[in-house]
């Protein structure tokens, strides 16, 4: 474990409250009493009776000295650990007069031991203790258990330092003292040295080199109280013969007298008068310079008159401008990279890493500004001394320098030339000017600071910067505080600056919007009316993914709004640009004062929705009180009260709770149905009479959404529940975590809740109920046994009145009036961003999914807001070909009404995310305006009909795309509801052969809708069709309900082999569900394919299971009937028999990147789009690049886009004359695929978190991080360029077709996946579970040795998926029904 984690683990058992500055995520997850804080908060907000503060950096410790002193003066007891930065121990003497015990540890193990020692001292006499420790990057384990640690601490009753040392010795077996004498063994026994060094610093570099010199080192371990007596004893009794004693501090602060020397001055008279006393200073010591530094240090003492206060060692830091070459690889300096992108000549005036102090940074800026002014004055005075060209050049420079708003910069080349010319001049005036040589250049000077500018003296400096009005002042403040709740004392710098009215101000977050960030930097760099200030968010996470999630939460919750403010724009309405869609109170008040909020809301439906829900949450609170008052009147007329509370992830627990509540109401109870988190543990729970809780199980035995806050409060509380009658029923899966050691996760939330309620005194009505998905009737088996016991305990009849069956999807469809439902009314309802449950199902048929941002649920609930609802909109794009106009329309909608990105899906179409309800109709309308639609892109209908991309064979591709479009048109729903709901304001739009939504008639008699093919209840489940041409299979033709494999003769498709019954979705551990690869049932001629697809759909419609949606896919119907029977009935519908299958060979299911030319001479370029996400990042500005390419194609009338089913984009049909321009754009926007490994190019993922409601684990956001680690190992094995198909999904529904991959990771819970092996490289064989519930380390640990074996043992041309089967690593899945056979670990 890391040093920081080990320190947190020790602190967690020694203190009731632990505050940790930017702790490891694992520490937060592992220890309930560890609270993460920013470095500014770590001292300011510590007010507990006793607490431990971990990980404060020594530089921040110095800034907080006044606060620490005040807390010590108030007799607060705490242990503070301070991490020594850059081996600079000057921080230790700085704390000498605080009145705290000061300890110093030299390595990781000492830091653990001394944290225990510090806690003992604080416990003994109540004094605060500060531990200064050296940071260590090594991973190590504690040498004692936390149980032993807790026992030792609990049994300690001493009060002195020696008592504490003795207890530490009992625990660790190590002997420590206030002073450490080195060398510590062997020849130390001689006790005779030439010199003695009393040292305050890091002894480790010195200790191993002492043998080269006759010197003893006394290392200070306890600095306060200073061990004067112990030092005297060492110098006068244990050591003798030395001729000099040196007091040496490792410090960057040089003082006239060493603090260490002053501490020991009292005992100097005890030392022989012949012994020289010297005080010195050392800087950075390492293995390269320690010998030389010691030699110089000791040599000085041998002089007859040694020089006092000399400094030895290497400088801690080099005081020079930041080199951008050095920071390019550092993610923490991402904003500095953008600065250089905007202006390659930019100068950072301060070293952000080592000297972020605001006063210093601003002082340096003003110094440079004054020096340039002095230079201008001097040039003006001396100009007449120069003649000719030099006079002209100086005059030109002077005009530039005196111009407050110069039209252009004085370049580095121009200034260098001027300085060179001056250097050749012999005039005295030239020498005077050259003293200011660094100030001729006009490089933009930026101050880079931290959020220390938001506090105290930093804020005063910020005020000074604004007050100066300096037009050359540029300030970038990087806020790394990941706490979404702004703490007391921290000022909002953006609002502060905007209220001044003279500065350009931007609030940016790189991981939220690269484009907005880049725009802000460009605008700030060009602003010359006053100071330009950028407040940038860069939260610290354990990984890039964590930083991404923290940023998203901050922006989407309104904590960190994105905006740009330019007070000098002519148009008032353009002065403030809000680039995000949520604002909190402070910013809202500013905008209200400026009358800008109304203007902004008119431009943004998202902002309108967020403002409305924010205001309505207040109104709802008022209305709730009225309802409660009215309810109390009704309560007097009803029976005993009962609260039915639930916590549910997928809706099963919520549905069960609702059913139970209805039954309780029919039995005479006054029933309240509520989400568990809506119950207050302190206020509501003790007053309950009857409480029944129904909860599902999430992740590794965790509480699901809607119950986490309640459980955290209940676990920490000590309330009395003696008057509460309670019952608990849990839903779980006993095989979800199949290993014996993981059995504890089964139904863990319900078991924990039952035990906790019982412990707090609740009277349990009956034994705990456990529902198991593995039972014959699922969780209902256990529930049907448990519920009668509940009624019996409550003294009511267990018989239930007749109940209507719960509404199903089939009911929703049947009663929808051909997909209308109440969608139109729901879209008009502005009181919520959601839709009714039935309409949520029906909108899918129109290509629209309601989602919410799962990462914002808890925060929005705390804020009194409904979830952050938004819609996903998916396009029907049969044949996967798009025009530049269509691309530009999607790109524009993503920016204006989406989340500024869009997705290329695994069915080769577009997908928008983040569309709020009010924008839904305009989005669908604008998609249709460019001859695309969304009808049937989701729902129980034929989904987008796809075909292979085939860039090198134009003629065959056209035949495939033609077939895809006519099949799509033939199977398209005929309801006019789509047009009625979304398109009434859109006129006629010419459509292609793929057809479009059926229009309602205007005027005349009303038309009664009908669905002659699909029927009023449509299909039991979705139906998918794909077409491919061997040897390519980029559509994964075997994964579809109907797959058409083209048979080509003489460059024409003559017909298709027909594959039936492919399908990906499964349910974890449910052996009745499985993925299935399609079965080849024969050949049909080309023109018969649409009819075959139609009759396949009819078979699905008529024979599919409409009672059990988990068994409703066509694959189960085929296996239930048997392939021969199914084929025979299909042939009856067709009126002809299938011909014998034609031979074909498929080689791969991947895309091939780069340029190719087809048989007609047109060029095509396949772009790599990571996981299909079209977005802009610093390293991959692909969205902007493809926008520019689409604009160019539109302007020139050349080219199309093909979207591949592997989530990539092909720029197609480019004539030779336009290739150079396209290549130039590809280079400019970084589309090269050379940097990608074969593994990465063959990978793909689904969307997963944060928007997919079914996701159990990360996929799209995490896969790049996983591949980064795996690629490093492949590089070592020489496999970087070998293609391996790897796919990752967040759940087992299979959107990225993981079941056909050679390697797949299928999400099981957050951070855990089922590892699949054995799929084929060409996509015709389903893989199998190799290991369930693996985390990243376990997955890497399994895959790397297998890849190593493959590298050394494979046959020529043998792919990894085939190798693991031949090598006996895993058995092949020969057909879908046998997917679970030979799987031991599930």
UniProtKB/TrEMBL annotation:
The enzyme's E.C. designation: 1.8.1.2
Protein's name in the database: assimilatory sulfite reductase (NADPH)
Species this chain originates from: Brettanomyces naardenensis
GO biological process, one term: sulfate assimilation
Family of this protein: Belongs to the nitrite and sulfite reductase 4Fe-4S domain family.
InterPro entries noted in UniProt: Flavdoxin-like, Flavodoxin/NO_synth, Flavoprotein-like_sf, NiRdtase/SiRdtase_haem-b_fer, Nit/Sulf_reduc_fer-like_dom_sf, NO2/SO3_Rdtase_4Fe4S_dom, NO2/SO3_Rdtase_4Fe4S_prot, NO2/SO3_Rdtase_4Fe4S_sf
Gene Ontology cellular-component terms listed: sulfite reductase complex (NADPH)
Domain Flavodoxin-like residue range list: 642-791
GO molecular function: 4 iron, 4 sulfur cluster binding; FMN binding; heme binding; metal ion binding; sulfite reductase (ferredoxin) activity; sulfite reductase (NADPH) activity
EC primary class: oxidoreductase
The keyword Transit peptide belongs to this UniProt entry's keyword annotation: no
Cofactor(s) annotated in UniProt: siroheme; [4Fe-4S] cluster
Key words, A-Z: 4Fe-4S, Heme, Iron, Iron-sulfur, Metal-binding, NADP, Oxidoreductase
Taxonomic lineage: Eukaryota, Fungi, Dikarya, Ascomycota, Saccharomycotina
Listed SUPFAM superfamilies: Flavoproteins, Nitrite and sulphite reductase 4Fe-4S domain-like, Nitrite/Sulfite reductase N-terminal domain-like, Thiamin diphosphate-binding fold (THDP-binding)
Catalytic activity line of the entry: hydrogen sulfide + 3 NADP(+) + 3 H2O = sulfite + 3 NADPH + 4 H(+)
Pathway(s) it belongs to: Sulfur metabolism; hydrogen sulfide biosynthesis; hydrogen sulfide from sulfite (NADPH route): step 1/1
Signal peptide span: none
């Amino acid at each position: 474990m890391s040093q920081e984690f080990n320190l947190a683990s020790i602190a967690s058992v020694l203190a009731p409250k632990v505050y940790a500055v930017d702790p490891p995520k694992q520490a937060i997850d592992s220890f309930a009493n560890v609270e993460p804080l920013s470095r500014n908060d770590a001292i300011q907000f510590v007010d507990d009776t006793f607490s431990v503060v971990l990980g404060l950096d020594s530089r921040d410790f110095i800034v907080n000295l006044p606060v620490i002193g005040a807390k010590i003066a108030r007799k607060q007891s705490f242990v503070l650990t301070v991490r020594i930065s850059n081996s600079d121990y000057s921080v230790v003497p700085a704390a000498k007069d605080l009145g705290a015990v000061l300890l110093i540890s030299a390595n990781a193990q000492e830091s653990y031991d001394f944290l225990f020692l510090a806690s003992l001292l604080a416990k003994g006499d109540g004094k605060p203790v500060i531990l200064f420790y050296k940071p260590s990057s090594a991973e190590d384990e504690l040498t004692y258990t936390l149980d032993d640690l807790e026992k030792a601490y609990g049994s300690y009753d001493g009060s002195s330092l020696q008592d504490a040392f003795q207890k530490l010795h009992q625990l660790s077996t190590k002997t420590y003292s206030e002073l450490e004498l080195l060398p510590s063994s062997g020849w130390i026994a001689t006790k005779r040295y030439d010199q003695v060094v009393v040292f305050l610093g890091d002894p480790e570099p010195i200790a191993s080199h002492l043998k080269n010199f006759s010197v003893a080192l006394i290392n200070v371990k306890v600095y306060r109280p200073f061990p004067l007596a112990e030092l005297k004893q060492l110098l006068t009794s244990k050591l003798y013969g030395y001729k000099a004693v040196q007091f040496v501090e490792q410090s960057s602060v040089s003082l006239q007298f060493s603090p260490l020397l002053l501490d020991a001055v009292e005992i100097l008279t005890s030392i022989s008068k012949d012994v020289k006393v010297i005080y010195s200073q050392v800087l950075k010591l390492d293995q390269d310079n320690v010998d030389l530094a010691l030699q110089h240090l000791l040599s000085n003492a041998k002089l007859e008159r040694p020089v006092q206060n000399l400094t030895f060692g290497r400088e801690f830091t080099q005081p020079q401008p930041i080199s951008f070459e050095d920071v390019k690889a550092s993610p923490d300096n991402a904003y500095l990279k953008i600065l250089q992108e905007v202006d390659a000549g930019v100068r950072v005036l301060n070293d952000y890493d080592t000297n972020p102090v605001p006063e210093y940074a601003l002082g340096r800026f003003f110094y440079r500004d004054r020096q340039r002014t002095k230079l201008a004055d001097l040039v003006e005075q001396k100009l007449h001394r120069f003649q000719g060209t030099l006079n002209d050049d100086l005059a030109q420079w002077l005009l530039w320098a005196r111009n407050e708003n110069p039209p252009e910069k004085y370049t580095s080349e121009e200034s260098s030339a001027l300085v060179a010319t001056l250097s050749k001049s012999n005039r005295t005036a030239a020498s005077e000017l050259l003293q200011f040589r660094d100030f001729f250049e006009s490089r933009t000077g930026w101050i880079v600071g931290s959020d220390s500018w938001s506090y105290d003296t930093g804020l005063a400096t910020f005020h000074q910067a604004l007050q100066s009005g300096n037009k050359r002042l540029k300030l970038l403040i990087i806020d790394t505080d990941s706490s979404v709740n702004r703490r007391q004392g921290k000022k909002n710098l953006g609002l502060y600056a905007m209220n001044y009215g003279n500065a350009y101000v931007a609030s940016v977050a790189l991981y939220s919007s690269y484009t907005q960030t880049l725009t802000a930097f460009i605008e700030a760099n060009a602003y010359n009316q006053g100071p330009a200030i950028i407040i940038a968010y860069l939260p610290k996470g354990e990984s890039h993914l964590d930083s991404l999630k923290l940023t998203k939460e901050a922006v989407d919750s309104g904590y960190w709004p994105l905006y740009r403010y330019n007070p000098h724009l002519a148009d008032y309405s353009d002065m403030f640009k809000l680039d995000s869609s949520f604002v909190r109170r402070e910013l809202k008040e500013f905008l209200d004062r400026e009358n800008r909020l109304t203007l902004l809301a008119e431009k943004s439906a998202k902002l309108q929705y967020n403002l409305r829900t924010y205001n309505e949450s207040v109104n709802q609170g008022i209305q709730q009180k009225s309802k409660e008052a009215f309810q109390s009147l009704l309560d007097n007329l009803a029976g005993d009260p009962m609260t039915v509370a639930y916590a549910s992830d997928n809706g099963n627990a919520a549905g069960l709770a609702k059913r139970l509540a209805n039954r309780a109401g029919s039995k005479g109870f006054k029933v309240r149905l509520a989400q568990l988190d809506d119950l207050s543990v302190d206020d509501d729970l003790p007053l309950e009479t009857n409480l029944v809780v129904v909860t599902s199980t999430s992740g590794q035995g965790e509480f699901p959404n809607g119950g986490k806050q309640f459980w955290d409060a209940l676990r920490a509380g000590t309330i009395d529940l003696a008057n509460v009658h309670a019952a608990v029923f849990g839903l779980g899966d006993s095989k979800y975590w199949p290993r014996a050691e993981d059995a504890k996760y089964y139904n863990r939330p319900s078991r924990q809740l039952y035990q906790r309620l019982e412990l707090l005194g609740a009277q349990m009505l009956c034994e705990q109920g456990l529902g198991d998905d593995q039972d014959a009737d699922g969780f209902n088996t256990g529930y049907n046994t448990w519920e009668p016991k509940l009624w019996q305990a409550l003294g009511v009849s267990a018989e239930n009145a007749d109940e209507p069956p719960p509404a199903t999807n089939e009911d929703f469809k049947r009663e929808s009036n051909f997909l209308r439902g109440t969608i139109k009314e729901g879209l008009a309802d502005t009181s919520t961003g959601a839709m009714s449950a039935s309409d949520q199902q029906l909108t899918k048929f129109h290509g629209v999914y309601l989602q919410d941002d799962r990462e914002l649920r808890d925060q929005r609930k705390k804020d009194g807001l409904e979830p952050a609802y938004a819609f996903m909109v998916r396009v029907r794009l049969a044949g996967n070909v798009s025009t530049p106009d269509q691309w530009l329309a999607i790109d524009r909608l993503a920016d204006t009404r989406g989340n500024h990105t869009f997705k290329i899906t695994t069915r080769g179409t577009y997908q928008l995310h983040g569309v709020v309800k009010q924008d839904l109709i305009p989005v669908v309308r604008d998609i249709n305006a460019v001859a695309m639609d969304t009808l049937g892109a989701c729902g129980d209908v034929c989904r987008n009909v796809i075909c292979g991309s085939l860039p090198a064979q134009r003629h065959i591709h056209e035949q495939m795309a033609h077939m895809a479009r006519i099949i799509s048109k033939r199977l398209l729903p005929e309801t006019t509801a789509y047009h009625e709901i979304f398109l009434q304001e859109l006129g006629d739009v010419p459509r292609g052969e793929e057809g479009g939504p059926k229009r309602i008639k205007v005027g005349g008699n009303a038309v009664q809708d009908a669905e002659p093919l699909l029927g009023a209840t449509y299909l039991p489940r979705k139906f998918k069709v794909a077409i491919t041409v061997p040897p390519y299979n980029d559509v994964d033709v075997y994964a579809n309900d109907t797959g058409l494999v083209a048979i080509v003769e003489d460059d024409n498709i003559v017909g298709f082999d027909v594959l039936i019954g492919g399908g990906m979705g499964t349910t974890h551990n449910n052996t009745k569900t499985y993925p299935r690869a399609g079965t080849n049932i024969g050949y049909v001629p080309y023109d018969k394919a649409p009819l075959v697809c139609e009759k396949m759909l009819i078979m699905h419609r008529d024979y599919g299971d409409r009672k059990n949606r988990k068994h409703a896919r066509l694959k189960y119907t085929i296996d239930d009937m048997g392939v021969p029977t199914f084929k025979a009935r299909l042939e009856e519908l067709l009126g002809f028999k299938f011909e014998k299958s034609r031979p074909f060979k498929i080689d791969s299911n991947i895309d091939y990147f780069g340029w190719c030319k087809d048989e007609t001479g047109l060029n095509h370029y396949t772009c790599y789009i990571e996981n299909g996400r079209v977005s802009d990042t610093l390293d991959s500005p692909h969205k902007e690049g493809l926008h520019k390419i689409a604009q160019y194609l539109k302007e020139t009338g050349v080219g199309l886009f093909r979207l591949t089913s592997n989530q990539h984009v092909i720029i197609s049909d480019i004539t030779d004359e336009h290739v150079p321009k396209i290549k130039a754009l590809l280079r400019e926007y970084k589309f090269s695929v050379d940097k990608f490994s074969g593994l990465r190019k063959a990978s793909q993922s689904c969307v997963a978190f944060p928007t997919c409601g079914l996701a159990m684990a990360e996929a799209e956001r995490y896969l790049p991080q996983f591949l980064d680690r795996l690629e490093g190992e492949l590089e070592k094995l020489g496999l970087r360029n070998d293609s391996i198909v790897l796919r990752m999904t967040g759940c087992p529904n299979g959107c990225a077709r993981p079941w056909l991959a050679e390697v797949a990771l299928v999400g099981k819970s957050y951070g855990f996946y089922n590892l699949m092996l054995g799929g084929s490289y060409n996509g015709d064989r389903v893989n199998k579970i190799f290991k369930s519930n693996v985390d990243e380390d376990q997955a890497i640990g399994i895959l790397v040795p297998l890849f190593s074996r493959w590298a050394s043992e494979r046959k020529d041309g043998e792919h990894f998926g085939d190798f693991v089967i031949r090598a006996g690593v895993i058995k092949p899945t020969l057909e879908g029904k046998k997917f679970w056979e030979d799987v031991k670990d599930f």
